[in-house]
Amino acid sequence: MSQPVSQPSQKIFISYRRDDSAGHAGRLFDNLSAHFGKDQIFMDIDRIEPGEDFVQVIETAVGACDVLVALIGRHWLTITDGTARRLDNPNDFVRLEIAAALDRDVRVIPVLVQGATMPGARDLPDELMKLSRRNAFELSDRRWPRDVEQLITALERFFAGQQGAQRREAEAQRAREAEELKRFADLRAAINTRVHELEAEEVERQRSVERTSASSKEMPPTARLAMLPPSVEAVAHSDAQPSNVTNRVEIELVWISPGSFMMGSDKYDDEKPMHRVTISEGFYMGKYEVTQAQWQAVMGNDPSHFRGDDLPVENVSWNDTQEFINKLNAQSDGYTYRLPTEAEWEYAARAGTTGNYAGDLDAMAWYEKNSGSKTHPVGSKQPNGFGLYDMHGNVWEWVQDWYHEAYAGAPTDGSAWLSGGEQKYRVLRGGSWNSYAYNLRSANRGRLAPDYRFSLLGFRVVAVARA
Questions:
Q1: How far apart are CA 189 and CA 448, in angstroms?
Q2: pLDDT digits (tens, 9 = 90+) for 248-278
Q3: Which residue, 164, 199, 228, sits at the end of a domain?
Q4: Do 144 and 252 belong together in one domain?
Q5: Which residue, of 164, 195, 215, is where some domain finishes?
Q6: Residue 235 belongs to some domain of the structure
Q7: CATH number of 289's domain
Q8: For the chain, which terminal residue's Cβ has fewer other Cβ atoms within 10 angstroms, N or C?
């Protein structure tokens, strides 16, 4: 029986110019809020704090929405700042909002007001040229109630399509999980059969030893023991693994054995091409995301927005994590600490699985659906198959690598990708308390500038024993 699919989000971002269509934007905000709920409609960027990177804030806000409504009035295209057309300014907020939506495949709906016409491709900056191919919707002042109702109907159709896609993905995921369970059951049956065969062979060998012993009383006990085959348990544990450890600041480390896996997916360009990565050396990885208590013990401060010793530390940049790691290494406790490489992170997150998630997402992750818009104590959900917690959700996790737009040329040995590309953004993995389910996929990749801080961003460490 198929499981019910959760209602998809219905978040709408209204992009507008205040000196072009502020009145229409306010009316539309009220209409959409009345239908979808006020917390589902985002219109202004007044929440940008002093010192924050407004480009990153806009990209984050737009990326959290499912639809961007671009209000275009008569002067939207031609308004100037006194010297040049605003749309030609790379830091123009309207330009940044629409470019962020187009770049992230957010549904963009141009809405024409005041009798405006749709701008042509040649009238737009290069990064907005795709806007000219979007089918526009007209809102007339004279037909406002009817036109708004038709716009809401169109939005509802889009959200319904999202729900259908989510349902199909969930059904496909269940089918993949069922296939994995079948393969596991077949493998277990084959192992049991081999165990029984080994036991039968051991019984027969023992009888042979007894017959030999009866015919040769002088046979030394060590010789008789040598004739016995090794037990199944001895074979299974012949390659002993290091034990899990806890360091001086109470960071618990789980041993991750070497292995290989298929990295990436065929869903998005920056997750392609899928490629095999072989990690030849095992490593220790933090069982949990670094907590505020652990950060406080090393750094003597707590930058987090949400407070609690057992909560993951957040509001830390990639650069901040390096300072933490340098101080941790200065303790010389026998281990060398670092961030995981992107390949190590995905290998550990998958824990031998091949689907979108390493298990049941609701059981393993704090995310938009269940987090209550906040972080939660580490380890309060179920772990993955490697015994790691919160690899999906709670906070995004920084990794070592620079972000590249695709995996062509990526290392295949599990090492960090530190060459080539723009070297502008560092990679983030795992999604957060504020993320939708698709951002929690094992293959999903995020990116931010290494000096960016936000209440969604944390990390965990990797450790290697020093020689």
A1: 47
A2: 999 999 999 999 999 999 988 999 999 999 9
A3: 164
A4: no
A5: 164
A6: no
A7: 3.90.1580.10
A8: N
